[in-house]
Amino acid sequence: MATKVNSTLGTLSRRSFIGATALGAAAVMAGGLEAVSPEKALASEGDGDETYVYTSCPMCNQSVFCGLKGTVQDGKLVRVEGNEQHSKPKPCLKGLTSLQYLYDPNRLLYPLKRTNPAKGIGEDPQWERIGWDEALETIAAEFNKAKETYGAPSVTFHSGDPKEHLPLFQRVAALFGTPNVSWGGAQCAFALAMSGILCYGATVTTMPSPETKVHLQWGSNIAWSLYPQPTAYKGMLDAKKAGCKYIVIDTRMTPTAVQLADLYLQPRPGSDGALALAMANVIIEEDLYDHEFVENWTEGFDEYKEYVAEFTPEKAEEITWVSADQIREAARMWAEAGQGTMWVSPHSTTHHSNGVQSTRAITLLLALMGYWDREGCRKLTPGVTGTADAEFRLTDLSGPLLDQRAGVDRWPVWSAMSTYYQNNGLLEYINDGIIHAGVFLGTNLMNFPQTQLVQEAVSTLDFAVAVDMHLNPWTHDYMDMVLPAAVCWERVAPFQSQPNGIIGSQAAMQPAGEAREDWQFLLDLGCALGFEEECFHGDLKAAMQAYLDAGGSGATVDDIQNALPGVYELPMAGEWSPKQYEKNGFSTPSGKAEFKSGLLEQLGFEGLPVYEEPHISPVSTPELLEQYPLILTTGNRVPWYVHSKYRHTPWLSQFMPEPIVNMSHEDAEARGLEEGDTVRIYNQFGEVRFKVAITNMMHPGNVEILHGWEQANSCLLIDRVFDPISGFPTFKDALCEIEKV
């Protein structure tokens, strides 16, 4: 079982941290971010000399992200702060608590195997500690057995979070011969990326620049999520001071809306597509659109124009809860500025049964105005050279296998646009006999709707091994083996791309117990499977060097390490110039920005960004509304957690020690509820229990809960219906009722 690491967190440091973070929360609400990054987070300090190490924080879910500087004394990490030479130099609370994460006495530190042959809900695995040699030999034997019996695709390489291991993950899977490799983007950001690529051949979201005159912030509360980086919100405040106007559209009255919005619209959850189409209706009807761009550089405008004519502001008001006057005002503000950018949440608009099409409707507001690849708009800037990794991932081996992926027929658009398989069908893949074994790296089974069905299915696999930092019963009770992963301060791989090059990582110490960093585990697994030469005989530095060589950077591992705390600089691929589409076109089937998607039509879907009601909503299921009169959304963020992560970390769990449901004063009063009451939230799928939090953020009739609470799993209330284009879960399509316990 897990072994305690001997480290004492100083009382003063904890008090200092609590005080600083409380000030940080207040600062966010007040419009500043400096206090969100306390200068120091301290552990007990000794008398020895201090040395410094540098790494990048993986504690958000977009792979390694912000720069961290660690102070090491007497062999212990005693202080964490930002690396000022990193492109993201100010980590948020989560990065600073990586110190406590390192010394968490509940960390998983040794390989464990199941000794109870019975698997299923309610069965105790009866874990027994084993050595790494036995673990790797067993995994290799079980995977090869599945390969011989059912074929290599019967083994899944399933990745949750974090994502920095993916190049090596794909390499080992390609060597083994399975195309069934997954990543966290199957539930996170990739549906948003798909929406942009279908319209423009590129992603669309960006922060406002000094030249931007209007910014459309749709469904993303950056004041709290601190995404895309902790400094982004300050940049947005600076842009506002410089004259940028903000249209903020969100189902909640967020701090971002309060502080930034020149115009705030609060739509009904799931109605975003109708709102975007109504804005387009106004822009076209009032002849405010960019004729030159639309006529020369777009495809399908006439059919799009005919379709949006149906969505008058008055009709949209009935659908969205937003007044016709506000819709007209937003459309005019967007169109008349002349230079605009947008940021759309990767979750809020995509976690619906019509998520991609609704998000396309939003992103096409850029095309209407020609807000593309010019100053003050979305600029397609060239990146650095020397960071390509397709050769390292062995795409020449994996490419011919892609048609064998699970779910290709069920989600053809996803399968055409991603080399990963859509893992939201894991339940069906197992039950249909497609998947028989797998490695689950950083996986949380509570991420799947109707979690109990997925848990039961995973328990029927011939063999399943998990890799994680903690032993989590809601996932690992259904596995045959669990292996300990190192935290960021204990690993040196991988590298991180920066705007001007590559930055490396240094380990502050050897991994605690017998934990191994992800890259080392994957090399060892590849060797155990019989690919010693291709996996560099388990030599981590050799693998890292091969990764650099494949990218063509010309750098050595030592070069990048020696450049720390700074960046190993690489040449740019070129200089930006405006309107590059005039030379190169758009990376779409037509070569133009597509109001009507050619790829969607090729694959049997409607090419226009059609609006459909969520599959469960007050409009589409009125009979359910009579029993469950509240719209339920799940999965929104708060500053100190990333979805299901870090709820057990003391420095962070103090901010929200129990599951809460956010609801309006009106909805609470109608049910006789007060702040802190324990309630049951229930619908046709099940029930969970939360504490009431009454807030002005919520529109009456709409309540929200966060996911990731093992004692209050929000996914038990979510249907197993998915967006047919992206395969995304419908985390925000639900109705419920609430009553006091």
Strand order of the largest sheet: 6-5-15-14-13-7
Query: Helix fraction?
Result: 25-40%
Globally, the shape reads: globular
Which secondary-structure class do the elements indicate? Answer: alpha/beta
The major beta sheet can be summarized as: 6 strands, mixed
Give the distance, in angstroms, between the N- and C-terminal Cα atoms: 37 Å
What's the total number of strands? Answer: 25
What is the C-alpha radius of gyration, as a whole number of Å?
A: 25 Å
In percent, how much strand structure appears in the residues? 5-15%
Question: Can you walk through the features of this model?
Answer:
The protein is α/β, with parallel strands linked by helices and 741 residues long. The chain is 33% helix and 15% strand. The chain has 29 helices and 25 strands. The strands form six sheets. Strands 6-5-15-14-13-7 form a six-stranded mixed sheet, covered by helices on one side. Strand 14, helix 21 and strand 15 form a beta-alpha-beta unit. It starts with 10 loop residues before the first helix and ends with a strand. The N terminus is likely disordered.
In short:
With 741 residues, the protein is of the alpha/beta class.
Quick tags:
alpha/beta, globular, six-stranded mixed β-barrel, 741 residues
Question: What order do the helices and strands come in, and which of them pair?
Answer:
Blueprint: H1 11-30, E1 41-42, E2 50-56, E3 67-73, E4 76-82, H2 93-96, H3 98-102, E5 112-114, E6 127-129, H4 132-150, E7 155-159, H5 166-176, H6 190-200, E8 214-218, H7 222-225, H8 232-241, E9 245-249, H9 255-260, E10 263-265, H10 272-285, H11 291-297, E11 298-299, H12 301-308, H13 313-320, H14 324-336, E12 340-344, H15 355-369, H16 390-393, H17 395-398, H18 412-417, H19 426-431, E13 437-441, H20 451-458, E14 463-468, H21 473-476, E15 481-484, E16 496-498, E17 501-503, H22 518-528, H23 540-551, H24 557-563, E18 568-569, H25 581-584, E19 593-594, H26 598-602, H27 622-627, E20 630-634, H28 650-653, E21 660-663, H29 665-670, E22 678-682, E23 687-694, E24 702-705, E25 735-740
Parallel strand pairs: 7-13, 8-9, 8-12, 9-10, 11-19, 13-14, 14-15, 20-24, 21-23
Antiparallel strand pairs: 1-4, 2-3, 3-4, 5-6, 5-15, 16-17, 17-18, 20-25, 21-24, 22-23, 22-25
Helix pairs in contact: 5-22, 6-15, 10-13, 10-14, 10-15, 13-14
